[in-house]
Give the backbone structure.
Amino acid sequence: MNTKFKTQMEGVQYHLKHLGPLTQKQATEYYGCRRLSSKIHRLRHELGWDIKTTEMKVKTGTRMVSHGTSVVAQYELNK
């Protein structure tokens, strides 16, 4: 977890503004944020941010066993 930020929300805001798109996996790894959709909802509805959601297909499983694909959300600021 990145200790540069006082809150998870600060980390998510910084990431979207300065680093680009963010997925749930990245939010958990970088900011300890396990409910990214909640943070995105607050940014949209309480702070008026224009955030685009894109669905991405990702492979699931391990190198040895493939289980198929899943769909994950990727969030980014509209410019």
Observations:
- The chain has a mean pLDDT of 92.
- Residues 21 and 71 are 16 Å apart (CA to CA).
- The chain has three helices and three strands.
- The radius of gyration is 14 Å.
